[in-house]
Design a protein that fits this description.
mainly beta; Jelly Rolls; six-stranded antiparallel sheet; 6% helix; globular
Length: 177
Amino acid sequence: MLQKLMFSLMLSSFITFPIIFDFNIKSDVRKWIIVDDVVMGGRSSGNFRLNDEGHGVFEGDISLENNGGFSSLRYDCGKILLEGKTQVNITLLGDGKDYQFRIKSNSGDYYSYIIPFSTSGEWEEIEIQLKDMYPSFRGRRLDGPNFSDMSFEGITFLIGNKKTEKFKLVLDKIELK
């Protein structure tokens, strides 16, 4: 009986359903955190909130002062088992700027797997093939294979276009397909 309970608890610690996050007015967004270039002396500032419609809004200002130039929004989603899923679909309203989507195979990894994407300024669904995500650390592509794991533990949205700019990314849903 104890073994069965432990197995059940172990399985419940992994997320296996296709929705990673579905924003709505009742969403608990406390696990979404901002990490700006201020951690390295920069002066960029991002913030995150739910708007009146229940969408997640990641917005702010990018500054190149003090060698800065990025803002990121991170979510510790726990272990997401892919179970045959090969892509992440993100329903969002962008501002016409370029962003990066990042995942970590393990939360303790020093590097992330990343892929850039562009936004159109309209509501759209961005389709990200997991196999196309490549390893990167501090803006440098690493010499290693693209993502091929059976799970991941964290996601990040990052803007860092090497210019001073305002940004706004409105998030509706993030799901596996």
